[in-house]
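INTERNAL AUDIT FORM
Audit reference: QA-55
Scope: verify that the stored structure record matches its stored sequence.
Auditor: D.O.
Record contents follow.
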Amino acid sequence: MFCKTTSAGYLANHCARLFVLAFAARIQPFGLVAGQFPVLLELWDTDGLTQKELVERTDVEQATMANTLARMERDGLIRRTPHPSDRRAQLVWLSDRAKMIKDPVISAAIEQNDIALGRLSDAEQELFIALLRRVVDTLRAERPRARERQELENTAKGHPG
């Protein structure tokens, strides 16, 4: 029987929603929404990625990434340039504004993490983070198999890929 108080998926989703609500309030003064943060983290780490690379690094769907990047470009957080060797691709670059807000936005994320994990001991926090990483790694490894199963089901129902 399903019970939301013992369901890892339900609890992880609920926890993520609460994190997003609190974090969104912290970064709103910088003109950001929470969905832009993973993109900014990747570009702060490696500027000049393609949209495909951002999709792969953040585990966000292609359509969602396209919408996020369009909003970020509109808001002056990124700019796009043609890829030097792939005419179909564009490189995504941080604007000066996005570079300038890095430190306060990272500080806001650290503060939010500190609040959320504040009732856990240092050892519990380390264990919690380690376990989350293992779950993420497991789910990432499962994604290609889940897509294959979905494609097989669609084919069996007569719906192409």
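Auditor finding: record pair retrieved intact. The longest helix spans residues 122-156.
Action required: none
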